[in-house]
Design a protein that fits this description.
Order of helices and strands: EHEHEHHHEEHEEEEEHEEEEHHEHHHEEH
Largest sheet: 6 strands, antiparallel, barrel
Strand content: 25-35%
Shape: elongated
Structural class: alpha+beta
Radius of gyration: 25 Å
Number of helices: 13
């Protein structure tokens, strides 16, 4: 049996980018081994079926800031293949992309199927073999430094180089461990927050822009500003997802039970007090329900907060007591919610953890422990916030590995 020049284990975004790049740079015999029946399933369902390809953060230093784990090491990678390079890469292969107001990049068609088709066509054009339902059970290294890849069905593939791009699947971590690597325990990242706050579900669907939120855990404070969405189970939106990523490990240790502090107002205490006094003096005949101290507060949210404070929404502003005013100000500046767990699903199905990054070269993505073994994507202890950053890492690490493997053939 003639060995393959490259066997890619995992038919997702990172695996396909590795295979295509290697093939386009002269590597002849390449096979992608996917354990399930479908390739790039995560690409298909991401972004609500639209696939957030990357983020239009063009400067490598700024791009790296969006990765709670791996950011510093990623600078070396992004200086060689960053978001702008990914944008050009796809467009040159026929996939038209667009940049939305929040800098997220999507296919013009808004269809993740077009991303999959682009990658599949590019792979087939270069004679990359694709094998589904090939679940890799074991990898053995032969005396002549070849890799024997064995499936559950006892099929065998021999390869000179292998790429592990198995995402967050535990099988990939096990394979990496068996080849000498250390694994940082994977924990969930990018998730929403559940709360049992009475009647908060009456505000379901309310979205507030540029809100400061914070978590305090064991004398450590994690903060973020962004758009907040109230759901029927609690809180979601970019602000929450990013905060969950930043504090992923600490939240796991706390079993996802913590206090969330929301600052509804962009004003500070003195300014907020002056504004409320102005309303009381100049519009005192109006009921609390009819005029809100902050433009960002929707009517439903304002009523909910008043009920939470046990203040009558039909009370006139001129009748508002000093104590009630102080309680409203305190609520708008540091409203507290007891979080009881993660929400029902994660935005990007991302994990924090994986192969230790100090055991991998971020110039070539090759193992520093096992020559001929490469890594790309989420199997590494690298994760980004929501907004296309996790796919960006897949493209970058896959491209770098493909280039490096091609150089080995020279």
């Amino acid at each position: 049996m003639d060995p393959f020049d490259l066997a890619v284990i995992g038919g997702g975004a990172a695996g396909f980018m590795t295979a295509i790049t290697a093939a386009e740079n002269g590597v002849k015999r390449i096979i992608i081994l996917e354990g399930s029946s479908k390739i790039m399933e995560k690409v298909r369902i991401s972004g609500g079926g639209r696939c957030n390809v990357t983020n239009a953060t063009w400067i490598p230093n700024e791009l790296a800031e969006n990765y709670p784990r791996g950011g510093i090491r990623l600078l070396e990678s992004f200086n060689r293949f960053a978001a702008g390079d990914v944008f050009d890469w796809f467009e040159k292969r026929g996939l038209k992309l667009k940049i939305e107001d929040d800098l997220r990049v999507f296919p013009v068609s808004n269809s993740s199927s077009d991303v999959i088709n682009c990658l599949t066509k590019a792979a087939i054009k270069r004679n990359v073999e694709i094998s589904t339902r090939f679940f890799v059970k074991e990898i053995l290294i032969t005396g002549d430094n070849l890799f024997n890849i064995l499936s559950r069905q006892k099929e065998k593939i021999i390869a000179r180089n292998i790429m592990l791009s198995t995402g967050g699947n535990p099988s990939g971590y096990k394979l990496a461990e068996n080849l000498g690597h250390s694994i940082v325990k994977p924990v969930p990242s990018l998730f929403t927050f559940s709360t049992k706050e009475p009647k908060l579900n009456e505000c379901s669907g309310v979205s507030i822009q540029n809100i400061d939120i914070a978590i305090k855990l064991n004398n450590k404070t994690f903060k973020n500003r962004g758009d907040l969405l109230i759901t029927h189970w609690g809180f979601s939106g970019p602000a929450v997802l990013k905060l969950s990523s930043i504090a992923a490990r600490e939240l796991f240790e706390q079993k996802y039970k913590f206090d969330l502090i929301i600052k509804w107002s962009n004003l500070e205490y003195k300014e907020l007090k002056e504004k409320m006094n102005y309303i009381k003096v100049n519009k005192g005949k109006l009921n609390l329900i009819n005029i809100r101290p902050l433009p960002c507060l929707t009517k439903r949210l304002w009523i909910f907060l008043l009920n939470k404070l046990d203040i009558n929404k039909d009370k006139k502003w001129s009748d508002l007591l000093a104590d009630e005013r102080e309680r409203i100000i305190d609520c708008l500046l540091k409203d507290k919610y007891v979080i009881s767990g993660k929400g029902p699903f994660g935005e990007e199905f991302v994990t924090s953890g994986g192969v230790k990054i100090n055991e991998v070269s971020f110039k070539t993505m090759e193992s520093l422990i096992c020559p001929g073994l490469f890594f790309s994507g989420e199997v590494l202890d690298v994760d980004g916030i929501t907004g296309g950053f996790n796919f960006q890492h897949c493209w970058t690490s896959g491209w770098l590995a493909g280039k490096a493997i091609a150089k080995l053939k020279e």
